[in-house]
Write a structure and sequence with these properties.
- The chain is mostly helical.
- Helices cover about 40% and strands about 0% of the residues.
- It is globular, with a radius of gyration of 13 Å.
Length: about 80
Amino acid sequence: MKTLEKTATDYSIEMIKDEVRHLVETGTVSRHQPIYILCQYIPAREWVCVECELEKCDYLLRDQIGDLIACENWDND
């Protein structure tokens, strides 16, 4: 039987960015908040993996969320 729990390899930086974009688009978080605020929306046992992936990609938890999703495409401009 397959387990549904995620492993560290399941948390790519692209997946994290997609999730963060969704949180910003829905107004759940602001682009100006620090990245560490995301730990409120990710289960603690999974946050460790997310934090490691962010570190690996040179993001600091004090950086703004906007830094994480800086490259966005605007279709309606």
